[in-house]
Predict the structure of SWIM-type domain-containing protein.
Amino acid sequence: MNELQATSLRAHEDFISVGVTKLCQAYISSSCKFDVVSNNISETFNGYILKARSKPIINMLEDIRRMLMARMQSKRELMLKSNDTICPTIRKKLEKNKKERKDCHVTPAGNMIFEVQSFDKSNVVNLVNRICSCRCWDINGIPCKHAISCILWLKEELEHYVHDYYKKDTYLKT
Ligand SMILES: [Zn+2]
């Protein structure tokens, strides 16, 4: 905070006025399993209904209903064809984290708890509680590079440790 204040007094004041609990990873809730908080979804939806929103209300709602029905059906078909147990975007994120684990060194501490060293940093991973001290796994439900290092050290399947929200079965139920 002192460094921020020295760099920009205005930025420091804005940061304080918004509140530390809304801006620091340490305070982000882990219940949603989502690490990006923005209004992108409303902007995307606004663009999605661009043609429909100029119509009278009933016609607009009917257009939106039809568009969403077609979208849900095409997504359902894609997921039914998939042989993976997790959703495609989550698979990409998991593979990205897997590639980034190369600098991680695992030390087991027993009871499925590990210390993972990466360059000059050290994190604690608890595979039973599915948490890592970097907080990425807790917040987004996808094992971080530290957790992946431990899971692969145990020769276990990564998919087992991805949150159920991202499983194919959950998607199809939704
Ligand atoms: Zn981590």
The CA atoms of residues 71 and 171 lie 14 Å apart. The beta strands are 104-110, 113-118, 121-126, 131-132.
